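We now fix the convention by which a protein and its fold are recorded. Here is one such record, which you should read through line by line:

>
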Amino acid sequence: MQRTEPTPGGVPPLASLLDAHRGRLLRFVRRRAAGLLRYESDEDLVQGIHLRALMEEDRFVYGGEREFQGWIVRVARGHLARRRRYWSVRGRRAGNPSRLTATTLGGGSPVREPTALGAGPRTELLRREELGQVGQAIAVLLPRDRVLLQWSSEGIPVEEVARRLGLSRESAGRVRLRALERFRAAFEAISRRSGRSSG
């Protein structure tokens, strides 16, 4: 396990704690999520737990390593339970997966469009803030997710992604969609956190 560097207030940043405990969380997922591993990789599940933890950061109070471990296990159990429910419902609905379009992602919720190009200083500031948030969201993704996000932004077809990753077309489509979903969740969590700290 890595050592975490405390902030000036003596509390390690949540991202550092998550990174330091990644190996322990992977082992926890491998023990507790055997049935889910048919649908998602252990790394995907850990990434989801990390994103859930970042979204719940406002409820997190650091009280030492032991308390952090208890908190992250609770977050992990909750995430694994949600993923089990998702796959349980999905198995009963045997329909086509949601379609990714330019205006929707996953469940059909509108994606916030980047601030329109404009000449005003406020617009420029908002654009810079959003680009910074995009960079932060990309930084918390796994390396493979970053590559998939890059290929998606370059318009690389799923067939080519499948060939590059050595996967079937269907599997490549699923991993690409999950990478985009994780990016979206990370971006939304960072945007909310930035909105709270500036508001």
In short: The chain has two domains: 1-95, 98-199.
